[in-house]
Amino acid sequence: MSVEQAPVQRADFDQVMVPNYAPAAFIPVRGAGSRVWDQSGRELIDFAGGIAVNVLGHAHPALVGALTEQANNLWHVSNVFTNEPALRLAKKLVDATFAERVFFCNSGAEANEAAFKLARRVAFDRFGEEKYEIIAALNSFHGRTLFTVNVGGQSKYSDGFGPKITGITHIPFNDLDALKAAISDKTCAVVLEPIQGEGGVLPAEQAYLQGARELCDQHNALLVFDEVQTGMGRTGHLFAYQHYGVTPDILTSAKSLGGGFPIAAMLTTEDLAKHLVVGTHGTTYGGNPLACAVGNAVFDVINTPDVLQGVEAKHQLFKTRLEKIGQQYGVFTQVRGLGLLLGCVLSDAWKGRAKDIFNAAEKENLMILQAGPDVVRFAPSLVVEEADITEGLDRFERAIKHLTA
Ligand SMILES: *Cc1c(COP(=O)(O)O)cnc(C)c1O
Q: Does the C-beta of 107 come closer than 6 Å to ligand 1?
């Protein structure tokens, strides 16, 4: 039974919503696979994937099935009780990674908040109150809570909210000497994204992550990988740390973990986890049965050779064609990234104009992303069909052609 709803339109946004977002002019109302339809019935191809979230596209039958089945059984019980979907998903994550313990929450920022609190608590318990410094990278992004914007390396997100959280140092990314100079026995954690996502789809160098691991070990500091954007198959491995072969002490996952349903996780070892004793941390919805039921379905589809190996093949399709477009129209100097997280670095002539390219793509019925003003980002579904890739990139080329004409 459906209830008649009052009509709403984009203009209503400015009347009723806090103006912290500037959404596009159209409103999506339905999705299937890598296609989305707006209120007027216009069909778009989705290479944005809800910012690396809709990892299996829209309305994937396995996810819809899991959510519907769970919706008919049990929605929420709080953490006063545990639940079956949460335990099942935690077991899968533990079996498939370095981790032995899982903490569930609802967003990437919350997973990182938990990671940073755990790192500080471990250092406090083991070494005393002087060891609390966190080292993070310039241009990094770790979420929008007060702690996470302060750890993030973009002051535009942390300025103007009162006193900053102290004990946080920022160093240039991929600069091992800078890390060596900054780290000390007061460092409790080094926090890195294996690929800086919001910062421009910039992959870490192998030697950098390896060196960071060694420096952390020398100084009894924990290595934290923020895999909120790179995790759950995005790079063709379940997590990007597995691509690099460098194991963190704490890993955070969100975005693709729920395929569009809000869920996040912090993964760690038993030895570290034991510092978060009863009462030290928590969140009402963390490990919610609905979210975890969907998370289980996402995990079961993604963690298969079929899907993970498919990511590399799709990466090549994107990369080859995007490089060609970049050369032909002189818009990109480089296409970088791993798997289905790709960034096209704008040439000098096009610097600062990623938003114009976003708008031009939208006119050609294509959803893409920026990663800052100088990088065009693609984060499509991992199961996007080849025909959709071809058609989407045809639309993208038309957009670039018109824009450069
Ligand atoms: C998106 C993102 C976050 C924040 O996740 P939210 O769910 O928006 O809180 C944190 N870290 C990275 C690397 C991200 O890409």
A: yes
Q: What is the dihedral of CA 252, 255, 256, 262, to 10 degrees?
A: 110
Give 47-79 pLDDT, tens digit per residue.
999 999 999 999 999 999 999 999 999 999 999
The secondary structure of 109-126 as a DSSP string is HHHHHHHHHHHHHHHHHH
Domains of the chain: residue spans and CATH:
10-59+305-404 (3.90.1150.10), 74-302 (3.40.640.10)
> In this predicted model, what pLDDT tens digit does every residue of 11-21 receive, in sequence order?
999 999 999 99
Question: How deeply is 13 buried, as exposed, middle or buried, from its count of CB atoms within 10 A (0-12, 13-18, 19+)?
Answer: middle
The alpha carbon of 109 and the centre of ligand 1 are apart by a number of angstroms equal to 6
Pairing between strand 168-171 and 133-137? parallel
| pLDDT greater than 70 at residue 164 | yes
Reply yes or no on whether 249 is catalytic.
no
> Atom of ligand 1 at shortest distance to CA of 254?
7
pLDDT band at 2 (very low <50, low <70, confident <90, very high): low
Q: Inform me whether the pLDDT recorded for 1 exceeds 60.
A: no
pLDDT confidence tier of residue 242, bands split at 50, 70 and 90: very high
Residue 5 confidence (pLDDT): 87
- Judged by phi (left if over 0) then psi (alpha if -120 to 50, else beta), residue 387 lies in alpha
- CA 143 / ligand 1 centre spacing (Å): 5
141 lines ligand 1 (CB under 6 A): yes
Copy the structure tokens of residue 246.
């460098």
Residue 20: phi and psi, rounded to 5, are -80, -10
Q: What is the mean pLDDT of residues 82-96?
A: 98
- Binding-site sequence positions for N(2)-acetyl-L-ornithine: 144, 283
Q: 185 an active-site residue?
A: no
Q: Which residues are known binding-site members for pyridoxal 5'-phosphate?
A: 108-109, 141, 226-229, 284
Asked whether 254 lines ligand 1 (CB < 6 A), one says yes
Question: Worst-scoring range by mean pLDDT, 3-7, 33-37, 205-209, 321-325?
Answer: 3-7
Say if ligand 1 is within 6 A of residue 228 CB: yes
